[in-house]
Design brief:
Number of helices: 3
Structural class: alpha+beta
Order of helices and strands: EHHEEH
Length: about 80
C-alpha cells in the first residue's frame, strides 16, 4: 500500500493531488471546481485547492452515499427482496 504522508489542512494542493485524494480523474475534479462544489484559488494559470476543502467535500459525499444506501436498503426491505 501507499505510505501515509502528513499534510497541513490549509495546504494548497494541485488539481492532480486533489483528484488523487478523492480517487477521481483530474477532468472530473476540474468539473467539480467549475461547478463551485469545491472552492479553489488561481495561482497564475494554475488552480489550487485547500486540503480542508477537499476533505469537507469528501465528508459530504460520504454522508450522501450513506443516506442513499439506507434508502435503497429500506426500499428492498419494504418490497421483501430478502435484504
Amino acid at each position: 500500500g501507499k505510505g501515509l504522508e502528513m499534510i497541513p489542512l490549509e495546504e494548497n494542493l494541485s488539481t492532480q493531488e486533489a483528484a488523487d485524494l478523492l480517487n477521481v480523474s483530474r477532468p472530473f475534479l476540474i468539473k467539480l471546481l467549475e461547478e463551485g462544489k469545491i472552492p479553489f484559488q488561481k495561482v497564475g494559470t494554475h488552480r489550487r485547492v485547500k486540503l480542508s476543502d477537499v476533505q469537507e467535500y469528501d465528508r459530504k459525499q460520504q454522508i450522501i452515499r450513506e443516506q442513499q444506501l439506507e434508502f435503497l436498503t429500506n426500499q428492498a426491505q419494504d418490497l421483501n427482496l430478502g435484504y
